[in-house]
Each structure stands twice: as C-alpha cells, then as structure tokens.
Amino acid sequence: MMINGWFELIVLILASFRLTRLVVFDKITSFIRKPFHHEVVETDSNGEMFTYIEIKGSGLQYWIGELLSCYWCTGIWCVAILLALQYVWPAGGEVIITLLAIAGAAGIIEAITQRVID
Questions:
Q1: Tell me: the pLDDT tens digits for 61-113?
Q2: Cα separation of 102 and 51, whole Å?
Q3: Domain region containing 111
Q4: Suppose 19 and one of 27, 61, 78, 79 were both cysteines; which one would form an S-S bond, judging by CB atoms 3.0 to 4.6 Å apart?
Q5: Is residue 94 part of a domain?
C-alpha cells in the first residue's frame, strides 16, 4: 500500500494520532494498560492531586509497559497496524482509518476551542 498524495497522508496522520491517544491515554482502553501499569495518585505540598504510572513486572511485561507508556513508541505501532489493516482489508481499513481521522480532527478542534474559550 502506498500513500497517494497529501490528503491520504493527512488522513493517516490524524487516524494514527487518534488511535495512539486511544491506546496510551483514554480511560476506555485502560484495561489494555492495566496488566502493565500501576497508577499511583499522590498529593503535592499545595494539596493538588496528581497521577503517575509505575511499570509492572520485568522482561516482556515490563517492555510492553514501557511501550504503552511512550506516546512515540506506541504511535509507531499504531501506524503499522493501520497500514497493515489497509493492506490486508482495504474496504474495512479505509472505514476505520476514516473514522479515526475524523475523531482525531474533532479532538484537535475541541482542544483548540477549549483553549480559546478558557
């Protein structure tokens, strides 16, 4: 599969952005991260709570935990999955990539809108 032009590249970029955020950050996919991450909630000296993750285990479990905690690392695998999906199942891959691209663009627009309004 080759990317034919700027439009397809931008659609793939938006789709990979959304899929990566879905895997690394969204609550709906926390079940994927749970075997590899332990979330720790602490309170700082100002009384504000913050959350960070500790990676569980060793060996393969630790490696996957590191992968899932790194936006850049997970992003490469998400792009690979999307490209493979488009190659193996062109019709379905196109629908999924388009759906993710629209959701990614909507997320970016929402983030910009929130910053302008606030």
A1: 999 999 999 999 999 999 999 999 999 999 999 999 999 999 999 999 999 99
A2: 29
A3: 6-36+71-117
A4: 78
A5: yes
Distance CA 102, CA 114 (A): 18
Indicate the pTM of the whole model.
0.89
Output the six-digit token pair for 39: 């979330």
For residue 20, give the nearest of 87, 103, 89 by alpha carbon: 103
**CA 66, 71, 115, 102 torsion-angle sign:** negative
β-partners of residue 55 are 37
| Structure token digits, residue 45 | 């000296």
- Taking alpha carbons only, the member of 32, 8, 19 closest to residue 76 is 19
> Total domain count for the chain?
1
For 100, counting Cβ atoms within 10 Å of its Cβ (0-12 exposed, 13-18 middle, 19+ buried), the class is: buried
